[in-house]
Design brief:
By secondary structure, this protein is mostly helical. The chain is built from 10 helices and no strands. It folds into 3 domains: about 70 residues; about 60 residues; about 120 residues, no CATH class.
C-alpha cells in the first residue's frame, strides 16, 4: 500500500499532458516497480540456494566471493541510478506540492500565474536539495535504515487512504480527507519514534514502547477510520459540493473526459 502513495508513483501525475496519459504512465510505473520487487525475492533466494551452498563461492569465513571490480561497478551504477530516480521523484513531488498546492491554491487563492508558480517551484527545489545535503551530512554516521520503512508507512498512512477513498467513495469529503491523512501521518511518525529502531537504538532507552518495526498496519486503520468518521459527520457546504461533484470526478478519473490539460509551465 505504501508504494501506491510514494512520490515515485504520484510524480507521474505531474509530468503528463492529460488524464489518459497519466493513467498509462502510472500503469507502467507500478508494473516495473512491482516487477523489481518480485526480482528482489527471486534473485535473492536463488543466490542463497545456488551460490551460498556451493563451496566454490564461499571463503573460509563463510563470506561470498567472486564478481570482482566489474560486478562491483555494475552494482554501484544500479545503486546510483536508483538514488538519482528517487531523489528526482521526491524533489519534483515536493516542489509541485509547494508551488501549486500550497502557494498557488492556498496562499494565492488560485490567482498566481504560471511564471510565478515556476519560480516558486525552482526555489523549492533548491531549498529541498540544500536541506537534503545538510541532513545527509548531519546523519552521515547514523544508521537510518528505519527511514525506509518510515517512508512506506507515511505514504501508506497519509496518501493511500486519501487516494482510495477520494476516488472510490462518494461520501468522502475534503475535511475528512485532510483530517484522516494528517492523523495517519502523525500516527505513523509517533509509532516509528516509539519503536525499537529509534526509541532503543538511537535514543538509548531500555525497551521500545511500540513493539513492532512498522506502524503501517495501525496508522492505516487510523487514517481510514478518521476519514470515514469525519466525512459522515461533515455537514458543511464544502461537503455538499464534494458529494455533488463525485460522479463527474469518477468519469474524469476513469476516462479522462473533461479533465483539464497540463499547465503551461
Amino acid at each position: 500500500f505504501g508504494t501506491a502513495g510514494l512520490p515515485h508513483i504520484l510524480m507521474r501525475f505531474f509530468t503528463v499532458p492529460n488524464a489518459q496519459a497519466a493513467r498509462k504512465s502510472v500503469l507502467w510505473a507500478t508494473g516495473w516497480i512491482g516487477y523489481f520487487y518480485l526480482l528482489t525475492f527471486i534473485i535473492g533466494f536463488g543466490a542463497i540456494t545456488y551460490i551460498a551452498t556451493d563451496p566454490a563461492y564461499v571463503d573460509a569465513k563463510g563470506a561470498l566471493i567472486g564478481g570482482g571490480n566489474i560486478f562491483l561497478g555494475f552494482i554501484s551504477a544500479v545503486a546510483f541510478a536508483t538514488i538519482l530516480a528517487v531523489v528526482a521523484g521526491l524533489t519534483l513531488s515536493g516542489a509541485s506540492a509547494v508551488s501549486h498546492d500550497l502557494f498557488a491554491t492556498v496562499i494565492k487563492k488560485n490567482v498566481a500565474d504560471s511564471k510565478t508558480e515556476l519560480r516558486v517551484s525552482r526555489i523549492t527545489t533548491l531549498v529541498l536539495g540544500a536541506l537534503a545535503i545538510v541532513l545527509g551530512i548531519a546523519f552521515e554516521k547514523t544508521n537510518v535504515a528505519y527511514m525506509v520503512s518510515l517512508a512506506f508507512a507515511l505514504a501508506a498512512s497519509g496518501n493511500f487512504p486519501v487516494l482510495i477513498l477520494g476516488l472510490l467513495w462518494k461520501g468522502c469529503t475534503t475535511r475528512g480527507a485532510v483530517t484522516g491523512g494528517l492523523l495517519g501521518v502523525l500516527t505513523a511518525l509517533v509509532l516509528t519514534i516509539l519503536s525499537a529502531d529509534i526509541w532503543v537504538t538511537i535514543l538509548h532507552h531500555p525497551a521500545a514502547i511500540f513493539p513492532y518495526k512498522s506502524p503501517a498496519l495501525f496508522s492505516m486503520i487510523v487514517a481510514f477510520a478518521t476519514i470515514w468518521l469525519v466525512s459522515v459527520t461533515d455537514k458543511s457546504a464544502r461537503a455538499a459540493i464534494d458529494h455533488d461533484g463525485f460522479d463527474d470526478q469518477r468519469v474524469r478519473s476513469e476516462t479522462g473526459i473533461g479533465a483539464a490539460q497540463a499547465s503551461g509551465h
